[in-house]
Amino acid sequence: MKLLTFCFASLLVVNPLIAQDGKKPFTLAVDVDLVELHVTVMDDKDRTVGGLTKDHFKIFENRVEQPIAVFKHEDIPLSLGLVIDNSRSIEPRKQRLDAAALSFVQQSNPDDETFIVHFDDEVRLTQDFTSKLADLQQALSSSKPFGQTAIYDAVMTAIQQMDKAKHQRHVLLVITDGEDNSSKATLSDVIEALKRDHISVFSVGLLSEFGGQKAEESLIKMAESSGGRAYFPENVDQARSMMEKIARDLREQYTLGYFSSDPNRDGAWRSVRVDVTAPPGFPKKLNANYRRGYYAPGD
Predict the structure, then answer these.
(1) What integer pLDDT is reported at residue 209 of this predicted model?
(2) What is the architecture of the domain spanning 79-250?
(3) Which candidate, 85, 7, 1, 4, places its Cα nearest to that of 297?
(4) How many CB atoms neighbour CB 21 within 10 A?
(5) Among 173, 151, 117, which residue's Cα sits nearest to residue 3?
(6) What single-letter DSSP state applies at residue 168?
(7) Residue 256: CA atoms inside 13 Å, Cβ hemisphere, count?
(8) What SS3 class is residue 245?
(9) Is-contact 178 207, C-beta < 8 A?
């Protein structure tokens, strides 16, 4: 599947104008809104597809095609949040899940920055942004499972933490084994915040057969609304493989950007569609999993 994330960049265009009287030049500043998309392309066997060019993509906003102004296929660093279940039920698998989370970081871009949020009855920022694996390892090992499961509050805390991010690409990896039963925030609160802050969620749910359906639906909704993806492994070994795949896929994203043809700064929701055309020699069906829209800037 494909993944596409959005972020806005407000570009300040400064043009020097020479005064007629020979005095110091003055400048005219104009704000231009660039919509930037991060797209992962997959074939029908769920394998990442590289080697595409700008001509193989089309972008539509509210059904109107938008000229592509930016196109790159590079391994771009991102700001990452690990949102990890620390409830009592996770205890038998904690050490192996901690190792899987570290493996995810190791498979990611070495220039990424990462923070950790743990959640049980309460939510804690266990590790602020860092690029040091040893810091992450220490934060993971020092956490002791306890209590219930406040997933939504944890994701809201992670969204707020992203205000300190230094990279434009923002991703959360949510690892849990159960249903939220302790949050003040709701699923709707989380989805709305993710849509407004352009943060992609990848969730890994090691869910039991009892009460797992509601938990699965909530993890899927968070992921799909944000341009991410939900995974449901049957055991910790599968979870580790899926996390490593997420890390590799994130490093294979295409970056596309366009300047919206809609001049209105009304804060309204705009739907976005990305079409990918397979060139000769490529699998005929290419998929894109991406955020389906964004909120326009407002004055």
Answers:
(1) 59
(2) 3-Layer(aba) Sandwich (3.40)
(3) 7
(4) 5
(5) 173
(6) S
(7) 28
(8) helix
(9) yes
CB 149 within 8 A of CB 119: yes
| Residue showing tokens 């060139």 | 279
3-state secondary structure at position 288: strand
E runs forming strands in the chain: 3-17, 26-42, 57-61, 64-66, 70-72, 79-85, 113-119, 123-130, 170-176, 200-205, 229-231, 254-259, 269-276, 287-288, 293-295
Quick one: tokens of 123?
């939510």
Q: What is the pLDDT of residue 290?
A: 81
Residue 47 confidence (pLDDT): 92
3-state secondary structure 115-142: EEEEECCCEEEEEEEECCHHHHHHHHHC
Torsion of CA 213, 293, 190, 32, to 10 degrees: 160
DSSP 296: P
CB 23 within 8 A of CB 33: no
Q: The tokens 């040893």 sit on which residue?
A: 134
| Global confidence as pTM | 0.87
Q: Which parts of the chain have pLDDT scores under 50?
A: 1-5, 10-31
Q: Output the pLDDT for position 213.
A: 84
What is the per-residue pLDDT for 8? 54
The answer to whether the Cα torsion of 112, 130, 154, 104 is positive or negative is positive
Q: Could you tell me the sign of the dihedral formed by the alpha carbons of 238, 244, 245, 246, in that order? A: positive
Q: In 108-226, which residue ranges form alpha helices assigned H by DSSP?
A: 133-141, 151-161, 187-197, 212-226
